[in-house]
Amino acid sequence: MDKYTKVDGHPNLVRNNVGVILNVNSNEATLARRRKKVWREQQAQIESLASDVDQIKKMLMKLVEDKDGSNSN
Fold it and tell me: Lowest CB count within 10 Å: 8, 17, 42, 52, which one?
């Protein structure tokens, strides 16, 4: 079984024998996982919006090109 050493100044953190710091407060760990999930979802939404804006931009450019082309005839 691993032996844990408390991390000075952080009552909810311990260090195992390999040096990995672990959070022993399960509530904090659960909240951190939720925050990370929300952040990932927000990043996916941002990427989707950026893609949508890029598509709209391309469509507008095509419309402008088509309009300019029809005026020159």
Answer: 8
What's the predicted TM-score (pTM) here? 0.62
Q: Point out the residues of the chain with pLDDT beneath 50.
A: 1, 73
DSSP assignment of 34-56 equals: HHHHHHHHHHHHHHHHHHHHHHH
Evaluate whether 12 touches 25 at the Cβ level (below 8 Å).
yes
Closest C-alpha to 16, from 28, 6, 29: 6
Query: Are the CB atoms for 24 and 14 separated by under 8 Å?
Result: yes
Rg for the chain (alpha carbons), in Å? 26
Residues 12 and 24: their CA atoms lie apart, in Å, by: 5
